[in-house]
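Schema walkthrough. Field components (list of strings):
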Amino acid sequence: MGTGRTTAVNCHCMTCLYILIISLRHCMSTDILSKDSPMSLTQTLVSSNQVYELGFFNPANSTNRYLGIWFKNIAEKTIIWVANRENPISISENRSTLTIANDGNLRILDGNQKTVWSTNVRGQFNGTIAQLTDMGDFCINDTTSGSILWESFDYPGNSLLPGMKLGTKGNTQGKHLMSSWKSDDDPTPGSFVVGLSAEQPPQVFIWINSKPNWRSGPWDGGKFIGIPEQDAGYSELVNLMPGNSQEGAYLTINLLKSSHIQRLYLQPDGVFRLKYWGDGSGIRNVSWEVPASPCDVYGVCGAYAICTNEKSPICDCLRGFVPHSKDKWSKGNWTRGCVRRSELFCEKNVTSLASSKTKPDQFQMLKGIKLPDHHHYFPYMDTDECQQWCLGNCSCKAYAYVQGIYCMVWIEELMDIEQFSYGGENLFLRLSYADSGKCKFL
Ligand SMILES: *[C@@H]1O[C@H](CO)[C@@H](O)[C@H](O)[C@H]1NC(C)=O
Ligand SMILES: *[C@@H]1O[C@H](CO)[C@@H](O)[C@H](O)[C@H]1NC(C)=O
Ligand SMILES: *[C@@H]1O[C@H](CO)[C@@H](O)[C@H](O)[C@H]1NC(C)=O
Ligand SMILES: *[C@@H]1O[C@H](CO)[C@@H](O)[C@H](O)[C@H]1NC(C)=O
Ligand SMILES: *[C@@H]1O[C@H](CO)[C@@H](O)[C@H](O)[C@H]1NC(C)=O
Ligand SMILES: *[C@@H]1O[C@H](CO)[C@@H](O)[C@H](O)[C@H]1NC(C)=O
Ligand SMILES: *[C@@H]1O[C@H](CO)[C@@H](O)[C@H](O)[C@H]1NC(C)=O
Ligand SMILES: *[C@@H]1O[C@H](CO)[C@@H](O)[C@H](O)[C@H]1NC(C)=O
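Field assembly_structure (string):
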């Protein structure tokens, strides 16, 4: 520094100062974008502890360029967020910049100063800056008020990082849902979306073109009951924040150690995985993914059927039910599912009942299963009240009483049931006396 100053005195002061500024700009990474210094294609922002980097990138085999965020210290570039997923810039466009416009918004401009992508902060803000944090969040801060006007964490792409929220579908105005890339080298939104369902308690869903492709089962206060814990090792890593009436619930993943890579990631093929890289210091490597087995796929056996990965074929009708179409079922087409074998007592014609000798419906317990979709929820009922409610309503097809959730009943068709080899819950299935197996001794 001393010699630098000596030279500075010896030459044209302005030139030296200029060179000094230019070289500082090149050597020192910054985490802040300000109004007077747009970021060019070759520049990047680096978070203060060198965890994340933001800049323009060009995926392999692609002629498109995107603005993205990646882990700074991982050799293989892992993009965790992309700004202009639907508005790429051509790689031949070499004068693009990222700027903060006078209205306070971030803008990607092409060489003709045309806006390719921008945020939509409304209002008049004089002192806005954008900053890349060590959590991987890119924020627009209003330095006059100290408030955050916009943040990339509200718009996850295919990755959920600690600090980001996974929200409820339908309640978030397009925020807080994850969506897959079209392919590994195309960040355009693909067919898969991940978010929470709006019911109580919520479930995580993977949707393919808006149809369910996997679900986690409802949250019991510590875990999702459709993911047996031994498999997952995820429950210490995942939190569900209770829903509020406007926005519903949020799922977050915990930050165990900032130097560790941890993210939930939705692949282009719809596989959803949780990745934690441990370093042997008490934090283990976790890599969990779904769908991982045939029975993970939503409703693979159709209605009133149960899926068992260890069986061949994997699908069986529930007790008391027979295939809707024997022919298709035997050929392995399970889409139509199963139908009830014999009418329930509660469905029978009351006037003709007196003459018949049938007995009231029974409940059959199915052990260790992934409970069906479309539950109705009675948080205040105990197990007896739950059973009585179900028995008293002919539309009630089954009930379950689960620690941490309490009473759940099923009115609609029973869909997406799996027999687990360990863990799982008990389902009490309503059957006619004849189908319950209790009449064989008569
Ligand atoms: C790019 O294309 C080459 C040759 O077609 C292929 O081997 C490679 O896997 C592709 N890379 C990506 C990331 O798709
Ligand atoms: C930008 O692209 C134009 C035309 O494609 C080319 O003539 C020019 O040299 C490029 N400039 C830089 C800095 O790469
Ligand atoms: C923004 O800054 C300009 C110049 O410093 C000033 O004239 C103007 O009043 C400011 N506007 C607001 C909304 O603070
Ligand atoms: C901008 O907001 C983020 C998120 O709250 C914060 O971490 C950061 O310190 C803020 N930066 C400035 C310069 O105010
Ligand atoms: C976790 O995975 C990383 C990368 O694959 C590996 O280097 C490390 O040894 C693993 N740590 C443990 C505790 O298994
Ligand atoms: C299975 O049956 C349904 C109608 O029940 C039909 O639409 C579908 O194409 C069949 N699937 C296969 C793989 O044959
Ligand atoms: C019920 O049974 C009575 C006597 O068998 C018959 O007249 C009546 O039509 C039946 N009602 C229905 C809804 O099936
Ligand atoms: C049975 O429960 C459903 C759903 O809660 C309700 O709509 C229906 O009225 C109930 N039926 C009777 C007979 O209570």
